[in-house]
Request: fold
Amino acid sequence: MSWYVLILAGLFEVGWAIGLEYSDGLTKPIPTAGTVVALVVSMGLLAIALEDLPVGTAYAVWTGIGAVGTATLGIFLFDEPASLTRVAFIGVIVVGIVGLHVASGGH
Reply:
């Protein structure tokens, strides 16, 4: 169950990272409020996942999900470059996330 909570925490991390872009430097009230809510939920879920998972593994996976999700949405939402090299390195992060899950026994 902790892994599902951690994945959800990572998805909320993507939400607040993307929200930062939409908040325009935290100057737009509604996107800023959504960003803050996503940040609080993300951190809260991470804290719950840490009850059963090692902090190093959980933090690496949480930030990895955030990095992959944010970079991917950046390509689709903000016309960021989608070069083969960039996409390949995003893939390397995914491999790292999966590797940490496997190495931890996937509990």
Notes: The chain has one domain: 2-103. Residues 2-103 form one domain. Residues 63 and 82 are 20 Å apart (CA to CA). The first helix runs from residue 2 to 22.
